Task: inverse folding
C-alpha cells in the first residue's frame, strides 16, 4: 500500500517531546501527524516522576493521556515507525515501516535516545527497576537502601555523590573507571562511601530482585540497587539520512540545535532527548512545545509571504 498524505508538520516520535509539540501545533490549527514507534525510553520504569500534576503515573499511561490531548485538537497519530526520509521540493517525504509515505512541509525529530548499557550480565534484565542511572528519576524509590555504583568513567564519582545524598549505604565499584584522584578519595572517605576494587562480573538476582554484585574473583557484595552510566545515543538515523551531522559528547551523541530546537538543516527541528541527552520529561515537554512554537512561527512567516505574493503576482 502506498498512501500519500500531506501535512504541514510531521513529528517523528510520540514521547513527551513529540506529543507536547503536537498539542501546541494542533492548537495553532496546523495539520500535524505524529509517527510513533511506541517504545519511549522510560518504558521499563514503574512510574514517571517529577512530572507536575501527574506525579508517579506509569510512563505509558502518561503518554496515552498526551495522545488523547493531542488528538482532541485534531492531531493525527500513527503507530508506524518512520524508516526513511528525504527532502522534496515542498518539504519532506517520510517512509513508514508499514509501507505508506507521509509528506510534510516541516519536520520535528523527537525520536529520543537509546541507552547503551554497560556489558555486565544482569544489567539489562533489571534496567529501570533496580538498575538505575538518574537520582531524580528513581532515586527516591531506593532511598536508604544499599546502593552500588558501577564505575565506568571519572563521572562515576559525581554519580556516587548524588546517590550518597539518598542513602548512607553506598558502595562504589571501581570496575572499569580510572583510579579516583586525591580529591575524590578524600570526598569518598569523608562521606563513608565503601570503595571496592576489581571488575564486576555479573549481577545476581532472584525473581527479578537484585541481590548482589559479583566480582570476577567470586566475592559478592549485597546491593539493593545499582547505578550505572549508559551511553546516551540519539536516535538520529533519519537526521543523518537528510545530511545532518551528530555532535559527540562525553556521555554519548546528539543533534545540536539552536534556539527553540532549530537544527542545521532547513525545515528540520529537534526536541527532547534526541537533542538534549540530559532532558527529563518536563524538559523534553518544554522543548517540544518550544520547537512547535518556532515551527508555527516559521510557517506563519511563509504564509504571510505567500499572501503578499498572491496580491502582487508580478513581484519576485
Ligand atoms: C529507566 C528510565 C526511567 C526514567 N524515569 C524518568 C522519570 O521518572 N522522570 C523523568 O522526568 N524522566 C525520566 N526518564 C527520562 C525520560 O525517559 C526522558 O526524559 C523522556 O523519555 C524524553 O522524552 P522524548 O520524547 O525525548 O523521548 P522518548 O520518551 O524516548 O520518546 C521517543 C519516541 O520516539 C519514538 N521513535 C524513535 N524512533 C522513531 C522512528 N524512527 N519512527 C517513529 N517513532 C520513533 C520512540 O518509539 C518513542 O516513542 C527516565 C529514563 C529512563 C531510561
Result:
Amino acid at each position: 500500500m502506498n498512501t500519500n498524505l500531506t501535512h504541514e508538520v510531521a513529528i517523528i516520535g510520540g514521547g513527551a517531546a513529540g506529543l507536547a509539540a503536537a498539542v501546541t501545533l494542533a492548537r495553532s490549527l496546523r495539520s500535524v501527524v505524529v509517527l510513533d514507534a511506541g517504545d519511549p525510553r522510560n518504558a521499563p520504569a514503574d512510574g514517571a516522576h517529577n512530572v507536575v500534576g501527574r506525579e508517579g503515573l506509569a510512563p505509558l499511561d502518561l503518554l496515552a493521556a498526551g495522545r488523547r490531548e493531542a488528538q482532541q485538537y485534531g492531531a493525527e497519530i500513527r503507530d508506524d515507525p518512520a524508516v526513511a526520509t528525504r527532502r522534496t521540493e515542498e518539504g519532506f517525504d517520510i517512509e513508514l515501516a508499514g509501507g505508506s509515505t507521509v509528506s510534510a512541509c516541516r519536520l520535528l525529530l523527537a525520536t529520543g535516545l537509546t541507552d547503551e548499557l554497560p556489558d555486565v550480565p544482569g544489567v539489562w534484565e533489571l534496567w529501570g527497576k533496580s538498575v538505575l542511572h538518574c537520582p531524580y528519576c528513581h532515586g527516591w524509590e531506593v532511598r536508604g537502601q544499599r546502593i552500588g555504583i558501577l564505575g565506568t568513567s571519572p563521572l562515576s564519582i559525581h554519580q556516587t555523590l548524588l546517590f550518597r545524598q539518598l542513602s548512607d549505604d553506598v558502595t562504589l565499584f571501581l570496575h572499569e573507571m580510572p583510579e579516583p584522584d586525591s580529591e575524590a578519595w578524600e570526598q569518598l572517605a569523608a562521606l563513608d562511601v565503601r570503595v571496592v576494587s576489581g571488575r564486576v562480573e555479573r549481577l545476581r538476582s532472584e525473581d527479578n530482585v537484585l541481590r548482589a554484585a559479583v566480582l570476577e574473583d567470586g566475592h559478592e557484595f549485597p546491593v539493593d540497587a545499582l547505578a550505572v552510566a549508559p551511553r546516551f545515543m540519539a536516535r538520529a538515523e533519519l537526521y543523518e539520512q537528510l545530511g545532518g551531522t551528530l555532535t559527540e559528547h562525553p556521555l554519548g551523541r546528539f543533534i545540536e540545535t539552536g534556539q527553540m530546537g532549530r537544527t542545521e538543516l532547513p525545515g528540520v527541528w529537534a526536541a527532547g532527548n534526541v537533542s538534549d541527552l540530559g532532558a527529563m520529561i518536563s524538559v523534553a515537554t518544554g522543548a517540544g512545545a518550544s520547537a512547535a512554537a518556532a515551527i508555527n512561527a516559521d510557517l506563519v512567516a511563509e504564509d504571510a509571504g505567500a499572501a503578499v505574493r498572491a496580491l502582487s503576482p508580478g513581484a519576485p
The chain has eight helices and 19 strands. Residues 12-18, 35-42, 44-45, 48-50, 81-82, 110-112, 115, 128, 137, 235, 272-273, 279-282, 284 surround flavin-adenine dinucleotide (CB under 6 Å). Helices lie at 16-27, 59-72, 123-126, 135-138, 155-164, 182-190, 237-241, 281-311. The mean pLDDT is 96.
